[in-house]
């Protein structure tokens, strides 16, 4: 029995395309599914990859993990999510696909940056190098600005700040892999190609907050941070990817008629929606193919089928910072990107991000949070609320 059959998937015949590929086949710049599958079949040469998947228990990440465990040789995956039950089940499934591999689930709410720091410290204790950091944890709601205990908007904390914190914390391990001529990749899955105007003087959106402005800021800041990171860490490849229209768990936070409407939309658009199997194949290709090489590195599965090194965000081939559409071709509204590059947006976004993260994780902020939590607990106790787990009244 093949690994595909063990996974419950029937591999398509070599000369058969999926409905999605057929619909978009008129685009000459897309990376064909045949080329991707040819590349992925060579992944057996990738041994003992150490990978980290943030938001890895469903959707695009889950199916990328399955492709990893089907194709690579004895990979190691750390999967970070919120559901212990789902995480444990997925880890068992992955290890069954690939004897000798390891899948470890770590439960954490990554909307809190101090939790991100704790997870990263655990990863650093376990591993000296990391080959792939895959960031796809997402949060969607129709509400307005809602701050975390650290003072960041919840949606922006999950979709942007926590991802950057993971990258910064784990750069030594990613650099160690790249310096050893191994695969060293960061892929953040959000909405490359959805660039729009942002307010460089109000990047935390403490005023004028809307859902559109929230998405625009997360997308544009992610774009420029990938470029800034690639400049500073040329042995690692950084990509911002749009996954296509997929049925993702990100809509789980929606309720009522909006959630129902999205489910109806999914049902009627099924022939045009990228299936998760293909999405997993495409994202696995993005994190393993030498098409998306680091600026100062060539690690990755060799190119085949007439493919070439991808053009980066700066429109330079192989620059190490890539904006990718669902089909692997370059994405991004270059008109908007160029306009913001002219006003030095990259360095401004870098400075803002470092300042916002430092403020959110500062000892002063943590002390204030602890004081507020302690006061809340004492008020609950005084009011006769049940004792909270792990706390005894003083």
TrEMBL record:
- Composition bias type Basic and acidic residues, residue spans: 367-380
Q: Which InterPro entries does this one have?
A: NAD(P)-bd_dom_sf, SDR_fam, Sec_Metab_Biosynth_Oxidored
Transmembrane feature ranges = none
Oxidoreductase keyword on record: yes
Keywords annotated in UniProt: Oxidoreductase
- Lipid biosynthesis as a keyword? no
Record GO terms (molecular function): oxidoreductase activity
Any one Pfam family match given in the protein's UniProt record, by short name? adh_short
Residue ranges for the region (Disordered) are: 361-394
PANTHER family from the entry? ALCOHOL DEHYDROGENASE-LIKE C-TERMINAL DOMAIN-CONTAINING PROTEIN, YALI0E05731P
Q: What is this protein called?
A: Ketoreductase (KR) domain-containing protein
């Amino acid at each position: 029995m093949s690994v595909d059959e063990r996974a419950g998937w029937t591999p398509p015949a070599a000369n058969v395309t999926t409905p999605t590929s057929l619909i978009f086949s008129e685009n000459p710049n897309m990376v064909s599914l045949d080329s991707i599958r040819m590349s992925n079949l060579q992944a057996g040469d990738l041994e003992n990859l150490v990978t980290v998947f943030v938001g890895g228990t469903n959707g695009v990440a889950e199916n990328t993990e399955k492709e990893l465990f089907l194709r690579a040789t004895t990979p190691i995956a750390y999967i970070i999510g919120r559901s212990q039950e789902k995480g444990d089940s997925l880890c068992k499934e992955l290890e069954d696909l690939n004897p000798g591999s390891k899948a470890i689930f770590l439960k954490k709410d990554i909307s809190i940056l101090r939790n991100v720091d704790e997870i990263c410290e655990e990863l650093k204790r376990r591993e000296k190098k990391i080959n792939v950091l895959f960031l796809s944890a997402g949060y969607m709601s129709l509400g307005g600005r809602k701050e975390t205990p650290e003072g960041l908007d919840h949606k922006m904390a999950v979709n942007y700040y926590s991802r950057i914190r993971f990258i910064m914390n784990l750069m030594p391990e990613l650099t160690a892999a790249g310096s050893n001529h191994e695969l060293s990749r960061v892929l953040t899955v959000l909405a490359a190609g959805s660039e729009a105007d942002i307010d460089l003087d109000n990047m935390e959106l403490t005023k004028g907050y809307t859902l559109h402005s929230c998405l625009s800021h997360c997308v544009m800041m992610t774009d420029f941070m990938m470029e800034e990171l690639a400049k500073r860490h040329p042995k690692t490849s950084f990509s911002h990817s749009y996954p296509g229209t997929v049925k993702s768990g990100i809509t789980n936070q929606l309720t009522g008629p909006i959630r129902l409407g999205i489910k109806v939309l999914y049902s009627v658009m099924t022939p045009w929606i990228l299936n998760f199997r293909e999405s997993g194949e495409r994202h696995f290709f993005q994190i393993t193919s030498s098409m998306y090489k680091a600026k100062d590195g060539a690690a990755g599965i060799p190119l085949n089928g007439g493919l070439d090194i991808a053009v980066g965000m700066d429109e330079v081939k192989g620059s190490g910072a890539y904006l990718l559409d669902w089909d692997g071709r370059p994405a991004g509204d270059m008109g908007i990107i160029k306009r913001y590059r002219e006003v030095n947006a990259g360095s401004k976004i870098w400075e803002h991000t470092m300042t916002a993260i430092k403020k959110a994780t500062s000892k002063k902020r943590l002390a204030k949070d602890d004081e507020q939590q302690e006061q809340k607990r004492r008020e609950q106790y005084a009011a006769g609320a049940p004792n909270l787990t792990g706390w005894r009244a003083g």
